[in-house]
Amino acid sequence: MNSTIFNDAMTLSSEDLETTHQTAQNLSQAKVNQEYLIKGVVAGDADIENFLFTLGCFKGETITLISILSESYVISIKDARYSIGSDLAQAVLV
């Protein structure tokens, strides 16, 4: 994948980041069986952001929280289900 496209999809400008933080909640605060639009991914760690991107988790994509088991979040993105930890769930702004 072209790195420019990847960087544009993963990063938010400082203005967008501030606005998104004021209005968005993260996935760990989401309700089960509800569909959300991803507003951004903010992890502070490029490896986490890259991993979430490989799952299809990026700004503008639809995500559904299927269930929460202990600190494991089962999510659905693009008709695929994944189990992610609470640190990854907190990085996804919805």
TrEMBL record:
Question: What residues does the Ferrous iron transporter FeoA-like domain cover?
Answer: 25-94
- SMART domains this protein is in? FeoA
- The reply on keyword Iron is yes
Provide the transmembrane region boundaries: none
Task: List, alphabetically, the Gene3D superfamilies matched.
Answer: 2.30.30.90
Q: Is Glycoprotein one of the keywords?
A: no
Per UniProt, what is one GO molecular function of this protein? transition metal ion binding
List UniProt keywords, sorted A-Z.
Iron
Question: What is the official name of this protein in its record?
Answer: Ferrous iron transporter FeoA-like domain-containing protein
The source organism is Photobacterium profundum (strain SS9)
The major lineage groups are: Bacteria, Pseudomonadati, Pseudomonadota, Gammaproteobacteria, Vibrionales
